[in-house]
């Protein structure tokens, strides 16, 4: 099992930056890919970004150029630097992880709220 703990959410104004962090513990061999998803009120949970242990990254189009994902493999952490935040970025952000040969993200954090006011 892998436990994921997010931190760094909050209430901010549009245009500012916020950094989310996620720390993994437990069977960290199952954290080949770590990433972020978000769920806005009344909407489905959606993919935001992920990064593999090898350094490969992927972003959803709406955050490209504004969000940057990074990870520290030694510390089993993954961060999401969010710049130029918009009200539509408001959501609960979830950290997720999967093993190298898994097609789905199997482990999830509890989520952290990000609210962007206009």
Q: Could you characterize what this model shows?
A:
There is one protein chain. This protein is an all-beta fold and 118 residues long. The protein has strands spanning 2-7, 10-13, 18-26, 33-39, 46-52, 57-59, 67-72, 77-82, 91-98, 107-108, 112-117. The mean pLDDT is 96. It has no helices and eleven strands. A hairpin with a 4-residue loop joins strand 5 (46-52) and strand 6. The strands form two sheets. Strands 2, 4, 5, 6, 9, 10 and 11 form a seven-stranded mixed β-sheet that branches. A four-stranded antiparallel β-sheet has the order 1-3-8-7, with no helix packed on it. The chain is globular, with a radius of gyration of 13 Å.
Element layout with pairings:
Blueprint: E1 2-7, E2 10-13, E3 18-26, E4 33-39, E5 46-52, E6 57-59, E7 67-72, E8 77-82, E9 91-98, E10 107-108, E11 112-117
Parallel strand pairs: 2-11
Antiparallel strand pairs: 1-3, 3-8, 4-5, 4-9, 5-6, 7-8, 9-10, 9-11
Helix content: under 10%
Approximate strand percentage? over 45%
Major sheet details: 7 strands, mixed
Which structural class best describes the helix and strand composition?
mainly beta
Report the mean per-residue pLDDT as an integer: 96
From the alpha carbons, calculate the radius of gyration and give it in angstroms: 13 Å
Order of helices and strands: EEEEEEEEEEE
User: What's the total count of β strands?
Assistant: 11
Stretches where pLDDT is under 50 for at least 5 consecutive residues are none
Number of helices: 0
Inertia-based shape: globular
**CA(first)-CA(last) distance:** 40 Å
């Amino acid at each position: 099992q892998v436990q994921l703990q997010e931190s760094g959410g909050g209430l901010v104004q549009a245009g500012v930056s916020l950094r989310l962090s996620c720390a993994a513990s437990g069977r960290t061999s199952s954290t080949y890919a770590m990433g972020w998803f978000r769920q806005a009120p009344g909407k489905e949970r959606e993919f935001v970004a992920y990064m593999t242990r090898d350094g490969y990254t992927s972003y959803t189009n709406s955050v490209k150029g504004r969000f940057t994902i990074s990870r520290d493999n030694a510390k089993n952490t993954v961060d999401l630097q969010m710049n130029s935040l918009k009200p539509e970025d408001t959501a609960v952000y979830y950290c997720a992880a999967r093993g190298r040969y898994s097609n789905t993200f199997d482990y999830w954090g509890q989520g952290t709220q990000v609210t962007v006011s206009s």
